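[09:14] KT: can someone run the structure on this one? pasting the chain below
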Amino acid sequence: MKSTISPKENDRSQKKLDSLRALNPDQLAERWRELYGTAMPARLRRSLIIQALAYRLQEKSFGGLKPATRRLLETAAGRASEHRAAKLRTRRSAQTGTVLVREWHGTKHQVTVLKDGFMFKGKHFESLSKIAREITGTRWSGPLFFGLRSRQEHQDGAR
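[09:31] RB: done, structure tokens below
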């Protein structure tokens, strides 16, 4: 993706986008062939056709998706075509300054997320798991204990 866009380039692009609304169905189909190199899919609503064409114009002018995003979408599309559910994990993470609260056996425990670890009861810890162990006396996944991961995510990650 381009990091800066000149005002002139932006104006040109905006005019191209605005002109799409004025095209008749045959002109939209022709524009589709020019931009995608294929015939326009049947039964698409006009608004969706215009959105797809606008996206393609912007992609050509300013750049497309990042490679990592493209790979993620291709993986999801592949699973969908195989009629398998796409498993897209959203990792919850805590930013510096976040206070995590967990009640354990009637006692409320607070942990502050630091830039280089965690603060619990005035002591610095490198991991949430060490704090969870101090609270419970047993081994725990810290992110699981403090609700940053679900049990399913924890089990999937262990495989």
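[09:33] KT: thanks! The chain has seven helices and four strands.
[09:34] RB: yep, looked fine to me
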